[in-house]
Give the backbone structure.
Amino acid sequence: MKNKFLIPVLAMIFATGLSFATAEKNKQAVDYIHNGSSWMAIPEIDCGTPGARECQVRLQDGTVYSVYDLNNFGSLKKTISKVPFQL
């Protein structure tokens, strides 16, 4: 008789516990560029293989900016590519 009561109770406890352990929804992946006065969010840039060069992006107006993972200067993305990526 104990087993018939205990198993459903444990199932309810586990179900309740797992309802609070759901995965967080992914935020949109973004990178950042600094235009001299402020940070601008841009879509995530795949810089390819990490290397010694700065990952750069060329905007439609022709300006070239370095790409950062976060909106701070310590998170510069690196690449082996010599050519800036087109945005």
